[in-house]
Amino acid sequence: MEERPFKLPLWIVMTLTSGAGSVAAVRWASPLALDEPLVAALVFFVIPGLVIGAATWVHRIAGVAAACAAPLLWTSATVDGADPFELWLIPAATVLLLFLWSRSLSRRRHTRGVTLAVALLLAIVSLAYPRPGPPREGTRVLVVGVDGGTWDLIDPLLEQGRMPELARRMTGAARADLRSLPSMFSPQVWNTIATGYRPEVHGIWDFAGVQNDLQAGRIWDQLRLEGRSFGLFGWYCTWPPEPGD
């Protein structure tokens, strides 16, 4: 008997699994990326699902290929040289699951319910975690930056007892290497930290840049719009100061 080109259970499994793999890979590389579930569902599930459905209508193998391509494309678009190689394990595992599940759904009808449940669970978990929670009322945040303060310089100073305040704050805390821009040029890096955008967007390339040259809002600009209080000292490209700062 000739196989029908489109099977609804297979399409649902492929869409849910492919989307879950895409979300997981993107959020590993950038945990706060697309933190709005509805937007993430549209970008990672609905639109790719339409493409996968069209490909599956042509042939099952074409649908599986389209489902495998989505997490691979999202991962390649997200990662850069600073990302760990292990990040590619997510799309690789997604491709393997899609291949195994497509064969299982084609050969064993009694596995469809379990397979659909697992795929749906993966999709729900990928959309729900990790997501930033709302700030608690009264929360105070202190950000201190040390330009050029890499761990190979700081660790010896900590061992010598020459940075006692930093050592105290690191007790029971986490530490990691900073993911930075390839140029490591201070005006670019500090304004990327403040805005979340690269220099091509925020517009600051060198020390000659002033606040009026900025083309993107910074963290404290958003705080100002929300009526929250903040203090600022010695950040690159904050001259001339805003009235009231």
Core attributes:
single chain; 245 residues; mainly alpha
Protein architecture, described:
The structure is a single chain. With 245 residues, the protein is mainly α. Helix content is 56%, strand content 0%. It contains ten helices and no strands. The chain has helices at 8-29, 37-58, 60-78, 89-107, 112-128, 151-159, 164-170, 186-195, 199-202, 219-225. It is elongated, with a radius of gyration of 24 Å. It starts with 7 loop residues before the first helix and ends in a 20-residue tail after the last helix.
Output mean pLDDT: 80
Tally of alpha and pi helices: 10
Unreliable sequence segments? 1-5
Beta-strand portion reads under 5%
Number of strands: 0
- Cα distance, first to last residue? 76 Å
Structural class: mainly alpha
How many strands, which pairing sense, and closed or not: the largest β-sheet?
Answer: none
Shape: elongated
Task: Please trace the helix and strand order, writing H or E for each element.
Answer: HHHHHHHHHH
Report the helical percentage: 55-70%
Q: Give Rg in angstroms.
A: 24 Å
Describe the structure in brief.
The chain is mainly α and 245 residues long. It is 56% helix and 0% strand.
